[in-house]
Write the structure tokens for this entry.
Amino acid sequence: LVIAIHGWGGRAGQMASVARRVADEGFHVVIPQLPGHAGGAKTDIKESAEALRSVVDEIGEPEMVVAHSFAALVLRLVYQESGPSKVVMVAPALNVEDALEVFGRRLRLLPWTQRGLRRRLRSWDPSLWPTVSQILPGQLEGTQVLIVHDPRDRETSFAGSAQLAAIRPATSIVPLEGAGHSRILSDPRTLDQVAGFLRGDRVSDESSAA
């Protein structure tokens, strides 16, 4: 069983290429439509995490989870300690601070406006902030992690991915030049890496441009 999770503002259909490739390897793939999807109602990260927990409760624990972008943060809330045997993070958002920077840049927020937004988020749920505002190598204990990320991704921080891979055991990173942030989900190099990771192949660097 494999669960493929779309990111914030994404949609389940974005994970179709990954799902088809994983299914070709003989796995059953579930792609839930989480809160925060494109065209959906307003929500927050805690509701997204609860929705994923509900999916797992209904269908059972997956052998692997594939998480795109913001879904990596949702995954971290659901599996704060032990997790599936394997996890693939595709262009992951690993630190909400980085996400706020992207948000502020898109909306052209002034520096003091961004600082005020951070203060409001911290006060919204003080227990949540430490989990999502830093790289935590101790999470997902016993899980093999593969990160696939374009070094020039403008939506999520490649530096954060590289940091996690450097300090967390059983974690590999594959830089895919030119893959983009959303297009990376259907990039043949990504699909090859996901399939090989499932099979237990040795992770190889496929960083050449598409």
About this structure: Residues 45-59 form the longest helix (15 residues). The mean pLDDT is 85.
